[in-house]
Amino acid sequence: MNQHTQRLYQQMKKRLDKVVPDAELRLKAEIAAEILKLKKEKNALILAHNYMEPALFYSIPDYCGDSLDLSRRAAAAGKPIIVFCGVRFMAETAKILSPASKVLLPSPRAGCSLAESISADDLRALRRRYPDIPVITYVNTYADVKALSDVCCTSGNAAAVVESLHAPRVFLLPDAFLAANIAAETGRRIVYLDRDGRLPDHLPESPNGIIIGWHGKCEVHERFTTSDIENARRQFPDVAVLAHPECPPEVVAASDFSGGTNAMIRYVDSSPARRFLLLTECAMADNVLAAHPDREMIRICSLRCPHMNEITLEDTLEALRREQYEIQVPQPIADPARLALEKMIAIG
Ligand code: 13P
Ligand code: SF4
């Protein structure tokens, strides 16, 4: 280990001593040091989602954050290369918002069950059938779906985006649970399209308006149940329970707080509680624990997103070396998708 790598290892060790075994940390520090050297040589920017594994999260990124935060960082990047340590829809968003940069995704297999749940053809048919209803799409969609949308949203700003439209009915696609949770938060009723993309014949009365949802689900968050919360509360009555809004509505209702990943981190940062149950992708609990070694994270959360898990330090090094896998978004798709994303960023 040279002096530079030794220094990086010591920094990582200080942060991750409780979270990553020493032998693994030494190996990862070596790879991270090579990445940092190449990053400097190539004047690249590394963005990493909050779900990245701890050794990556605490070594190579210029910025870590949630989808909204990373979209803003990408828009302001001004770098020839952006390496996106996250999943494809996030890297596509970065490419759309920073078209002059070469955007690299370290694994071609880092997808997302929500993004897979709706196609551009699905949305085209919906728009044809219901041309007067505005369409909000969650950023967890591919670029061709964003291109057909009025505005995008993330878990961090979905309620604000819905309210900004002042419309009696809005589509909020494709996450069925996010739509229901945002309906509850904004005092609206939730209604679902059927599998053929049709609305029910009669829509319920709702003075504050209606949110219309699709049937997409996050394959990680859909698995949390109220029993997980009951079990944790039975054993640890003082536990603070935080649920991502992609969780089922009954799970969100039984939690103490619901918000996107940055909001969850802020909650832990400022909470007087000592014990937490984070109902979200499980690497995030390790990252939060590393930042707060005096707090306890209840470890019933063992759900790792298989797509986020694709992104390793090894693949990130290869991505920078070979400048792979480059994200391309054709201009006729990128231009309207950018409008929908920029509207979202302007709302907050
Ligand atoms: P955030 O926008 O809250 O970071 O969530 C992204 C995501 O994919 C959650 O599963
Ligand atoms: Fe998609 Fe769920 Fe993975 Fe987030 S955690 S990237 S929503 S599959």
Describe the protein's architecture and organization.
The model has no long low-confidence stretch (mean pLDDT 96). A 5-stranded parallel sheet has the order 6-5-7-9-8. A 4-stranded parallel sheet has the order 2-1-3-4, with helices on both faces. It has helices at 3-16, 22-42, 54-57, 67-75, 88-97, 113-116, 120-129, 143-146, 158-164, 176-186, 226-235, 249-253, 261-270, 283-291, 313-322, 331-347, and strands at 44-49, 63-65, 81-85, 102-104, 135-138, 151-153, 169-173, 189-192, 210-213, 240-243, 257-258, 275-279, 296-297. The protein is built from 16 helices and 13 strands. The protein folds into 3 domains: 3-112 and 308-322, NadA-like (Rossmann fold, 3-Layer(aba) Sandwich), CATH 3.40.50.10800; 115-217, NadA-like (Rossmann fold); 221-297, 3-Layer(aba) Sandwich (Rossmann fold), CATH 3.40.50. The longest helix is centred in the N-terminal third of the chain and has 21 residues, at 22-42. The protein has 348 residues and is an alpha/beta fold. The chain binds 1,3-dihydroxyacetonephosphate and iron/sulfur cluster. 1,3-dihydroxyacetonephosphate (13P) binds at residues 50, 66-67, 140, 154-156, 218, 244, 246, 260-261.
